[in-house]
TrEMBL record:
<dbReference type="InterPro" id="IPR014710">
    <property type="entry name" value="RmlC-like_jellyroll"/>
</dbReference>
<keyword id="KW-0805">Transcription regulation</keyword>
<dbReference type="InterPro" id="IPR013096">
    <property type="entry name" value="Cupin_2"/>
</dbReference>
<dbReference type="InterPro" id="IPR009057">
    <property type="entry name" value="Homeodomain-like_sf"/>
</dbReference>
<keyword id="KW-0010">Activator</keyword>
<dbReference type="InterPro" id="IPR050204">
    <property type="entry name" value="AraC_XylS_family_regulators"/>
</dbReference>
<keyword id="KW-0804">Transcription</keyword>
<dbReference type="InterPro" id="IPR018060">
    <property type="entry name" value="HTH_AraC"/>
</dbReference>
<keyword id="KW-0963">Cytoplasm</keyword>
<keyword id="KW-0238">DNA-binding</keyword>
<protein>
    <submittedName>
        <fullName>AraC family transcriptional regulator</fullName>
    </submittedName>
</protein>
<dbReference type="InterPro" id="IPR037923">
    <property type="entry name" value="HTH-like"/>
</dbReference>
<dbReference type="GO" id="GO:0043565">
    <property type="term" value="F:sequence-specific DNA binding"/>
</dbReference>
<dbReference type="Pfam" id="PF12833">
    <property type="entry name" value="HTH_18"/>
</dbReference>
<dbReference type="InterPro" id="IPR018062">
    <property type="entry name" value="HTH_AraC-typ_CS"/>
</dbReference>
<dbReference type="InterPro" id="IPR020449">
    <property type="entry name" value="Tscrpt_reg_AraC-type_HTH"/>
</dbReference>
<dbReference type="Pfam" id="PF07883">
    <property type="entry name" value="Cupin_2"/>
</dbReference>
Length: 289
């Protein structure tokens, strides 16, 4: 296990892109020279590493470090972000990892031991980066990283370093929250299930609170404590997840906005860009193979 202090990090982004795969894409068993973060926007990817298999669904990501044989594939068409980076490096200028990527055989892949990374955050203690995780709100930061990497404007290396640091802190904050005892989720579970079953319904807080047997004010407080969001913002996030897949499947933006319960096309576009960093039209265009 590698342990570093948050205050000592100097991340360097070596490569960043957003791409869409075809069905049954397989990158093979590989060994990379740096670290990689893969975030699935829509679709599904599979990772085999350290003797375990991980399914990466929409809104989820995986992280793994250097010199560890792994196999990454996508059984269906998948829209994803990929960022190669190093935790600490004096220069911020990207060095593409492609020339140093090696291919592994089956024996190396099956016998590989997964090495984890831990970050010490004063005064909170040590946080271990998991291989597989769900991180809300990460997509807009990744979109900025890709844009900065592609355009290479003056100072882009330092800009990438700042954005990668922002992404790391964003992930660590959510990991710290995940570590808290889940004392209230069972209490709000009926509301979560209802919102998932009917995401296009214009849910009132009083209706959701009644499903859980609480006064609306107390319910909203419990919901915020557990998920870090108000019920309104939570259901908007769930609608956006559904919207991303529907857009890539060709559904018309106007019909999608209405189906998912947004009050207007303008409001839908505003919320979509707030969550993803892109308008629905931009997302559809960039998500095409």
């Amino acid at each position: 296990m590698t342990t570093s202090s948050l205050d000592d990090l100097m991340p360097t982004v070596n490569f960043a892109n957003r791409a869409t795969t075809q069905t049954d894409t397989d990158w093979g068993a590989r060994i990379i020279p740096d670290c990689q973060l893969v975030y699935v926007v829509s679709g599904q990817a599979e990772l085999f590493i350290g003797g375990k298999s991980y399914t990466i669904r929409t809104g989820e990501c995986v992280y793994y470090g250097p010199e560890c044989p792994h196999a990454l594939s996508a059984p269906i068409g998948t829209d994803y972000y990929s960022v190669h980076f190093e935790w600490r490096k004096e220069t911020a200028i990207p060095v593409h990892p492609g020339h140093h990527i090696l291919y592994a055989d089956d024996a190396e892949l099956s016998s590989a031991t997964l090495s984890q990374t831990s970050i010490v955050i004063v005064p909170y203690g040590e946080v271990t980066f998991p291989t597989h995780m769900t991180v809300s709100g990460l997509e807009p930061i990744l979109a900025k990283i890709v844009k900065e990497y592609e355009f290479e404007r003056p100072g882009y290396g330092l800009a990438l370093r700042g954005l990668m640091m922002q992404a790391i802190v964003h992930i660590l904050r959510q990991l710290l929250d995940i570590g808290k005892p889940p004392v209230t989720r069972g209490r709000i579970e009926p509301a979560i299930v209802a919102m998932h079953d009917e995401p296009g319904r214009n849910w009132a807080v009083s209706e959701l609170a009644a499903l859980c047997g609480y006064h609306p004010i107390h319910f909203a407080k419990l919901f915020k404590e557990e998920l870090g969001l108000l019920p309104k913002h939570y259901i908007i996030g769930e609608r956006i997840k559904l919207a991303k897949r529907a857009l890539l499947n060709g559904e018309k933006i106007e019909a999608l906005s209405e189906r998912l319960g947004f009050t207007s096309l303008h409001y839908f576009s505003h919320q979509f860009k707030r969550v993803t960093g892109l308008t629905p039209s931009e997302f559809r265009m960039l998500g095409r193979p």
